Amino acid sequence: MPKVINKIIKILIASDFMLFLGWGILSPVFAIFILEKVSNTGPIHAAEIAGLAAFFYWVPKAFFEVPMGIYLDKNPGEKDDFWFMITGMFIISLVPIGYMFSFLPWHIYVLQVIYAAGQAMVLPSWLAIFTRHIDKGKEAFEWSLETAFLSIGTGVTGGVSGVVIAFLGFNALFIFVSVLTILSMALLLLIRNNLSARDKHSSIFILEKPGMEP
Predict the structure, then answer these.
(1) Any idea which of 74-88, 126-140, 187-201 has the lowest mean pLDDT?
(2) How far apart are CA 86 and CA 200, in angstroms?
(3) Is 77 exposed, middle or buried (0-12, 13-18, 19+ CB in 10 A)?
(4) Domains, the chain, ranges and CATH?
(5) How far apart are CA 172 and CA 75, in angstroms?
(6) CB under 8 Å, gap of 24 or more: what pairs does 100-106 form?
(7) Coil/strand/helix, residue 214
(8) 3-state DSSP call for residue 205?
(9) Are 53 and 185 in contact (CB under 8 A)?
């Protein structure tokens, strides 16, 4: 990415790319995993479990996100946003490991709610930091970079997910997804000291370190 893009935006995009690189490889084969490892009565039951799994992710996520966003807005500075993002990523990284030990439908449902909680912590904080640090006059360009990298990550890994399953199996895939999530979280640590905090003696924000690349 060009040097005209500031460090925080670069890291956020790279981290999101890594995250979607992992989860993009899981999405296309998740229903197959349910059919082979969780369902015991065939494809109709597997389809029902997959549908409920989606429900137990999207609905709790919707309920969790709004209170998270309200809480983050009430607390000045970006340190709380950062640690919410890191904590959420760590929670997300544990979910694929949980899939490895799942053999009943309710296992999947519980993991989906945990995944929803992790994403509800990551998304509002990630978006808030990205919004504050996006380069003025380059808003459309930098958002287009974000969505383009997500498309590439999801598309590339989605295309090879079947091959990974055929040669390595589901457990290897889940470990791969978890590792990429941890790497995505580790990338975010690079911006820890570049985020703003509230001065104890005033109502303005101060930068601890410059947010631009040297």
Answers:
(1) 187-201
(2) 24
(3) middle
(4) 7-195 (1.20.1250.20)
(5) 40
(6) 100/170, 100/171, 100/174, 100/175, 102/37, 102/38, 103/37, 103/38, 104/38, 105/38, 105/39, 105/49, 105/52
(7) coil
(8) strand
(9) no
What b/e readout covers 79-116, taking b as 16+ CB neighbours within 10 angstroms? ebbbebbbbbbebbbebbebbeebeebeebbebbebbb
HSE-up (13 A, CA, CB side) for residue 64 = 22
- CA pair distance 147, 152, nearest whole angstrom: 9
Alpha-carbon distance 15 to 180, whole Å? 9
- CB of 177 within 8 A of CB of 27? no
User: pLDDT tens digits, residue range 41-100?
Assistant: 889 999 999 999 999 999 999 999 999 999 999 988 899 999 999 999 999 999 999 999
Check residue 203 and give its pLDDT. 35
Adjacent-strand bridge partners of 206: 197
- Compute the residue count for the chain: 214
Binned at pLDDT 50, 70 and 90, residue 213 comes out as: very low
Angle at 183 between CA 135 and CA 162, to 5 degrees: 110
Specify the range with the lowest mean pLDDT, choosing from 7-11, 134-138, 203-207, 210-214.
Answer: 210-214
User: Coil, helix or strand for 112?
Assistant: helix
